[in-house]
Each structure stands twice: as C-alpha cells, then as structure tokens.
Amino acid sequence: MATERSPSRTLASTAAAAVLETRLGWVCVVAQSGRVIATSLPAPTQAEAVSACPPTCGRENTHKTLAALLHDLRQYFRGEPIDLSQHPVDLSAQPSFTRRALLAACKIPYGQVRTYAWLARAAGRPGAARAAGQAMSRNPVPLLIPCHRVIGTGGKLTGFGGGLALKRALLELEGIVFPSHPEARPRIRPGGSKSPARRRSRTPAHPAVSVTRPQAVDKESA
User: Fold this and answer.
1) Residue 7: which of 70, 72, 93, 134 has the closest Cα?
2) Which domains does the chain have, with CATH numbers?
3) In what order do the strands lie in the sheet with 25-32?
4) Which residue in 128, 102, 109, 108 sits closest to 117, CA to CA?
5) Cβ burial, residue 183 (10 Å; 0-12/13-18/19+)
C-alpha cells in the first residue's frame, strides 16, 4: 500500500516527470528519490495535466519508479484491477490528519466505495466527515491514493477536484454501476471487485523525462 516518508521541510530540487495519454485523458506523474510526489487526474490536454503537477528541474535517476507506475497506469485504464496504492509516495508535506486520511483511503479496495464518515473514523476522528473531505481535496497523488472511491452518505457523488463526471467515470472503470435514479446507491457489478493484481516484478523499460516540462509522451494503445 502507499507509504509515506519521514517529514522533511523542503523537497529536493530535482525530480523526474512523464505524461501518459489514457482513455479518460492525459495524466502527468512526478517522482523523486524513488517515490511519487505528484500525479494529475486525467485532463483533456497534455498541457493541463502537466500544469496540475509541480514543475520539475534538473535530473534524477528515477526512471525505474516512473516506468513501473506508467506500466500499472496503462493496465488500470484498460480496466485491469491494478492496485496503484502499492507505489511508494511522499506525503511529508501534509498535516498529520490529512496524512492519516490519505493512508486510510488506500485501504478502500478496487471497485468499492466508502463514505467520508467511514474515512473520518478510519483516520481516527469519528464525526469529522467534512475534515476528511478536505483531506481528500489535498491529495497530491490521486489515482495512487484513491480519493475517487470516497463518496457522500447515501451513495451521492460529491467533492472531486476533477469534476463529478470524471469521478463517476473512474468508478465505472472499476466496475461500479450507477443507477439512473439520482438518489439510488451505486452498486458493484459482478467481477468489479475482484482482487487487484499486484505489479509484475518485470516491467518494460520506459524513458522518464527529467526536465522542467515533460517532453516525452507515452500514448496508451486502447
């Protein structure tokens, strides 16, 4: 599952980034010191995906981190039950409760949803559903930490930085079925909650871009 680093005051000045085109849009990923520090939600254009992540500068040998993540993202957006939370992330810049809420969100299985009230309890603050929602809005690594799997009471889709249409699309990708009635609870389609696949030990080589703005484009073949 996603892990955090020991808190540090500043991030190093170097990082590596890459972009990937998926069925739902462009995704940018940024890694540093073997950990993922930022990901974007799928965006309509490459430029929008890049702008959603912090700028990178310099060079760092993080190509293995990015190659493994890009491989898993390709599989995920093809509908494979991939456990993206296994990739190590850096949450050192987040406040204590936000870190706990983000790590708790990693426990939500692929193809399932939980409420903000559940998340608050799992993070050690029962009754703090609003604070749990605010913690999800600060998620620096969406998709890896599945904040899209957190929904409102009664199954309502609420509060998502990429918009509710994208939140629904991600959940439907994982097998969640949304009835046409707006007040109906989403349900899990048969096969939609099968156990996520672990990342294969051997991943294809993939060049990571280590410049201020990612130049290489990894275009997914749907």
Assistant:
1) 93
2) 16-89+200-219 (3.30.160.70), 96-188 (1.10.10.10)
3) 35-39, 25-32, 16-22, 217-219
4) 128
5) exposed
By annotation, the residues acting in catalysis are 147
Residue 86: C-alpha distances to residues 144, 157, 177, 193 (Å): 8, 25, 25, 17
Indicate the residue type of 16. Answer: A
Q: Are 73 and 27 in contact (CB under 8 A)?
A: yes
Contact 27, 71 (CB under 8 A): no
Which residues, at least 6 apart from 40, have a Cβ–Cβ distance to it below 8 Å? 26, 27, 28, 29, 48, 49, 50, 52, 53, 142
Instruction: Answer for the pair 68, 203: CB distance below 8 angstroms, yes or no.
Output: yes
Q: Each residue of 167-196: pLDDT tens digit? A: 999 999 999 987 654 444 555 544 444 555
Rounded to 5°, angle at Cα 219 from 175 and 52: 75
Residue with tokens 């559940």: 118
By the 8 A CB rule, do 172 and 178 touch? yes
* Whether residue 44 has pLDDT greater than 70: yes
Q: Which of 162, 153, 187 is nearest to 172 (CA)?
A: 187
pLDDT 10s digits, 138-167: 999 999 999 999 999 888 898 899 999 999
Euclidean distance between CA atoms 100 and 125, whole angstroms: 10
